[in-house]
Design brief:
By secondary structure, the chain is of the alpha/beta class. It has 21 helices and 28 strands. The longest helix is centred in the middle third of the chain and has 34 residues. It binds adenosine-5'-diphosphate and magnesium ion.
Length: 750
C-alpha cells in the first residue's frame, strides 16, 4: 500500500442549509517520489482534495489511509499531530515571517523541531544553497521578490523535512520566469518525497510532473502516470529516514534557549512595534508606581498625623525617658544623653515641654508652649538674647496678628506668666523670633513657643509638681488633703523655715482651744517621689490678724490659705526633673535607639508607638488598597487592549509557528519573553529617570518627592508587580490568538 490512499472519499460543505459537494467518491493512491499535479477548472474540487489529504479538512464518507492506518475516527488533535509529522505546506501567499531573514525563516522550522544548533547551521546553509538564495541569506524576507519568497517557503518546507509536501497554487502570484524556477525546485524535491501541487495552470508543470490528476465536478476524471517504479525505492529509503526522524523530532521539541532567542528577536525586529509597546509599558510602569507610592505614603502620613492622650508634642522623633531607679536627672545624665549617638536634641524639662503657658499684661498677651532657651535654633528678629533668668524669647508666626501692631514695643516689657495652675511669675521679653508664613504647611500653623531660662523652667516645674501631686496634712490625728497654690498651700515670706501658719478655724480641733505649738505632718505624693515634712504650727490668723501676720491684704482673696516658708515649699515640690525627652536625628532607627537607651539605664517611651489616629488608619487602608488594586486592574486592561491592537498582526506569526509544528506552551513563552523584556526595559528607563532626577540632571517637580520616598525594597516589589502584569497580559493575549486554529488564521488573512 502507498503512503496515502483514499477510498470512496466524499466531502460535503454545508452552508445556509445548502449542501455542496466538494469532492465525491474519490479513489486515489499516492506514494513517495511522486510529483503529483492536480488540475481542473475553478470549483472542480482541487483545493478540497488537497485539504483532505493534508488533514486540514475532514471528510464525511469513505476512508483515508495514512501509511495503511485508517483515519475516519481521527479527532482534530490527531489531524494536528498528523500535519505536524507528515505535511509541509507551501502557500500561494508564502506565509513567511517577513521581519525575519531568509536564514531565520528556514532555521525556524528546525528550531521548532528541537534540532541541535550545529546541525541547523549546516543543514539550513545547504538548503538555502539548494534553492539558490545563498546571497540573500541574511536579507529580510520583506525585501525579497515573490519568486524569492516562494523559494524561502520551499526551503523552509525542506528544513521541516516531512514526507509529504503540499502546495496550493504555489506559482499563482509569480511571473512565468520565477514560476519555472519554482517548478524545477519542486521537481527536484519530489525525488524522495510525495509532492502534491494544485494548479489551474498545468502547462507550467507538464514537463516535470510524474503524475497528473484532472478533476471535474468533485470527481477525478483523469489520472495518468501513477508511478509504480518508485515504490521499491521508497520503502528502502523511508525506513532509514523515518527512524532518523523519530530520534530527533519526537517530543524533544523547541528548546528553552531557542524560545528565549526568538522572544528577544521578536522584541526588537520591528522597531515601530517595539517603541509603541515601550510607550504602553512606560504608562503601565508610571501609573502602577504612582499607585504604589500613594498607598505607601498615605499609610505613613496617617501614622504621623496621630494624637496621644498625654503629650502635646507628639513629634515622631521624640522619645521620652525616665531613669530606671526613678530618681531625678543629674547634670552627668544630661551630658551623657546629649552626647549619645543619633541624639539631635535633648529636652531636659520634659514635664514643662507639654505645657502651654500664657504671658500677659494690660497691653498684650501671648500663648505658647514652653521650651528651653538652649533649644532655640533661630535668629532673633527683634531684641536680644536674655541675660537674666526671668527674660524670655517669644517665637511665633509673623502674620501681623500674633505680635500685634508694634512687635518691637513688646521688648523689655514685664509680663505675668502662668501655667494656669495658680502660681504666677514676672518675666520680661528680651527677644522675638518671627516665623515666616511659608512655615504654614498644608494649612498647619507652626506652634508659638516661649523660650525660658533653665532656672525659670525649674521654677515653673515646681508649680506643676505642686498642682499635679497629692498633698496631705496630718493635724491633730486627722489627715486632710491640701491643694497647692492660691487658696491652698502657699509660700509666705513671714513664715520661718520649719513653721506653718494656719487659718483660725484649725484652733477648734485642739483641746486647749488653740493650735499653736503643735506639730503637723505635710506629705507630698508625686509620680516620682514622696516627701514628708514635720512643721511646727506658729499660730493661726483671723480676720483681724491676717494683714499683720501674713503681710498680705484682702483676706477675701486668700480665704483658707495655709502658709509655709519658701524653703519648705521647695523641699516638698522642687525635686528636680524626672523625665526628659530625646529627639533622634533619624526616625528609621527607633528600635535601635530604644535598645541603646534601655541599656543605658533608662525607661523608654517611644511616643510614635503610642499615637492613635483621629481617622482610624485601618479605615483608610481598607479603602486605599482596593482603590489602588482597581486602578492597577484598569491600567492592566487598558494595556491589554492596546497591546492587542499593536500585536494584531502577530496572529499570522504565531499561526506560522503552529503550522511548523510548535505547541501552545512554547508559543506562549516566546510571547511572554517579549512582553516581559519590554516591560523591564520600560522599568529600567523609569529607574534611570529616577537616578537622573536624584543627581539633578533632570527635574520633575514634585515627582522628586515621591521618587526619593521609595526604598530599594519598594523598587523590587514594584518590579515584581510589573513582571506579574506583563506575564498576565501575554497570557491573555495568547489565549485569544489560540482561540482560532492556525489554518483559520491563515484563511482569514487570505
Ligand atoms: P477549486 O480549488 O478546484 O477551485 P474547491 O475545492 O475550492 O475547488 O471547491 C470545490 C467545490 O466546493 C466548489 O463547488 C465550491 O463551491 C465548494 N466549496 C469549496 N469550499 C467551500 C466552502 N467553504 N463552503 C461551501 N462550499 C465550498
Ligand atoms: Mg482552489
Amino acid at each position: 500500500m502507498g503512503m496515502i490512499r483514499l477510498k470512496n472519499v466524499s466531502k460535503f460543505y454545508y452552508s445556509k442549509g445548502i449542501i455542496a459537494s466538494g469532492i465525491s467518491k474519490v479513489n486515489v493512491d499516492l506514494d513517495a517520489g511522486e510529483f503529483v499535479v492536480i488540475t481542473g477548472e475553478s470549483g472542480s474540487g482541487k483545493s478540497t482534495l488537497l485539504n483532505v489529504i493534508s488533514g486540514l479538512d475532514t471528510y464525511e464518507e469513505g476512508e483515508m489511509y495514512i501509511e495503511g492506518m485508517e483515519t475516519s475516527h481521527y479527532s482534530a488533535a490527531d489531524f494536528e499531530e498528523y500535519r505536524k509529522k507528515y505535511i509541509s505546506f507551501i502557500f500561494q501567499n508564502y506565509n513567511l515571517v517577513s521581519s525575519y531573514t531568509v536564514y531565520q525563516n528556514v532555521a525556524l522550522a528546525m528550531e521548532i523541531d528541537g534540532c541541535d544548533n550545529a546541525e541547523i547551521r549546516r543543514k539550513v546553509t545547504e538548503i538555502i544553497d539548494k534553492v539558490g538564495l545563498s546571497e540573500y541569506r541574511n536579507r529580510k524576507v520583506s525585501k525579497l521578490s515573490g519568486g524569492q519568497k516562494q523559494r524561502v517557503a520551499i526551503a523552509r518546507a525542506l528544513a521541516k523535512d516531512t514526507k509529504i509536501l503540499v502546495a496550493d497554487e504555489p506559482t499563482g502570484n509569480l511571473d512565468s520566469v520565477s514560476a519555472d524556477g519554482i517548478v524545477e525546485l519542486l521537481t527536484d524535491i519530489a525525488e524522495d518525497k510525495l509532492v502534491i501541487v494544485v494548479t489551474h495552470n498545468y502547462d507550467q508543470f507538464k514537463d516535470h510532473a510524474t503524475r497528473v490528476i484532472k478533476m471535474h465536478d468533485g470527481k477525478i476524471v483523469e489520472d495518468t502516470g501513477a508511478a509504480k517504479a518508485y515504490e521499491a525505492q521508497y520503502h528502502a529509503d523511508s525506513i532509514g529516514r523515518s527512524n532518523a526522524r523519530a530520534k530527533r523530532n519526537d517530543e524533544s521539541g523547541i528548546t528553552y534557549g531557542t524560545q528565549l532567542k526568538l522572544g528577544v528577536r521578536n522584541t526588537f525586529n520591528l522597531p515601530a512595534k517595539f517603541l509603541l509597546l515601550l510607550l504602553v509599558f512606560l504608562f503601565v510602569v508610571s501609573s502602577v508606581s504612582a499607585q504604589y507610592v500613594s498607598v505607601k505614603k498615605q499609610k505613613d502620613t496617617v501614622s504621623e498625623q496621630g494624637w496621644n492622650n498625654f503629650f502635646a508634642n507628639y513629634d515622631p522623633k521624640r522619645i521620652v525617658v525616665e531613669k530606671e531607679d526613678r530618681t531625678a536627672f543629674t547634670k552627668a545624665d544630661y551630658e551623657a544623653l546629649e552626647n549619645a549617638p543619633h541624639v539631635e536634641k535633648l529636652v531636659r524639662e520634659d514635664i514643662v515641654y507639654d505645657t502651654s503657658v500664657y504671658i500677659e499684661n494690660e497691653q498684650f498677651s501671648f500663648y505658647g508652649y514652653m521650651s528651653e532657651l538652649r533649644n532655640l535654633d533661630r535668629e532673633l528678629d527683634l531684641g536680644s538674647m536674655p541675660k537674666a533668668d526671668n527674660e524670655v524669647v517669644l517665637c511665633g508666626l509673623d502674620d501681623g496678628w500674633t505680635f500685634g501692631d508694634q512687635p518691637d514695643a513688646l521688648i523689655g516689657q514685664t509680663y505675668k506668666v502662668s501655667t494656669g495652675e495658680g502660681a504666677e511669675h514676672d518675666i520680661k521679653v528680651a527677644g522675638i523670633a518671627m516665623l515666616p508664613e511659608s512655615e504654614i504647611v498644608n494649612d498647619e500653623y507652626p506652634e508659638s513657643i516661649i523660650y525660658f531660662s533653665d532656672n525659670m523652667i525649674a521654677e515653673m516645674r515646681k508649680d506643676l509638681y505642686a498642682s499635679n501631686s497629692t498633698t496631705t496634712m496630718l493635724i491633730n490625728s486627722v489627715e486632710e488633703q491640701l491643694m497647692a497654690g492660691r487658696g491652698g498651700l502657699v509660700v509666705n515670706e513671714n513664715v520661718p523655715e520649719g513653721y506653718i501658719l494656719l487659718p483660725t478655724s484649725y484652733d477648734q480641733g485642739f483641746k486647749e482651744g488653740y493650735a499653736a505649738g503643735n506639730e503637723v505632718v505635710l506629705k507630698c505624693k508625686a509620680l516620682y517621689y514622696e516627701q514628708e515634712l514635720t512643721l511646727m504650727i506658729m499660730g493661726t490668723y483671723g480676720e483681724k490678724t491676717f494683714e499683720q501676720k501674713t503681710g498680705l491684704t484682702d483676706l477675701a482673696l486668700h480665704d483658707g490659705e495655709i502658709y509655709i516658708s519658701e524653703m519648705d515649699y521647695r523641699r516638698l515640690y522642687e525635686k528636680g526633673s524626672f523625665q526628659a525627652s530625646v529627639f533622634v536625628d533619624d526616625t528609621k532607627n527607633m528600635d535601635g535607639m530604644k535598645d541603646m537607651l534601655e541599656r543605658g539605664g533608662y525607661h523608654v517611651l517611644v511616643l510614635r508607638d503610642h499615637i492613635y489616629n483621629f481617622i482610624d488608619s485601618d479605615i483608610l487602608s481598607i479603602i486605599q488598597l482596593p482603590m489602588a488594586v482597581i486602578v492597577c486592574l484598569a491600567v492592566f486592561f487598558i494595556a491589554y487592549f492596546v497591546v492587542r491592537l499593536i500585536l494584531k498582526s502577530r496572529g499570522v506569526y504565531f499561526a506560522t509557528l503552529r503550522m511548523l509544528g510548535m505547541g501552545k506552551k512554547p508559543a506562549c513563552r516566546i510571547m511572554r519573553v517579549e512582553l516581559v523584556l519590554v516591560c523591564m526595559i520600560a522599568y529600567a528607563l523609569f529607574i534611570l529617570f529616577v537616578c537622573l532626577n536624584r543627581i539633578g540632571v533632570v527635574s520633575a517637580g514634585n515627582l522628586v518627592d515621591y521618587i526619593d520616598y521609595l526604598k530599594i525594597r519598594d523598587y523590587v516589589i514594584l518590579a515584581f508587580i510589573l513582571l506579574f502584569m506583563a506575564v498576565l497580559i501575554s497570557g491573555r493575549f495568547m489565549r485569544t490568538i489560540f482561540k482560532s486554529s492556525a489554518m483559520g488564521t491563515f484563511r482569514e488573512e487570505a
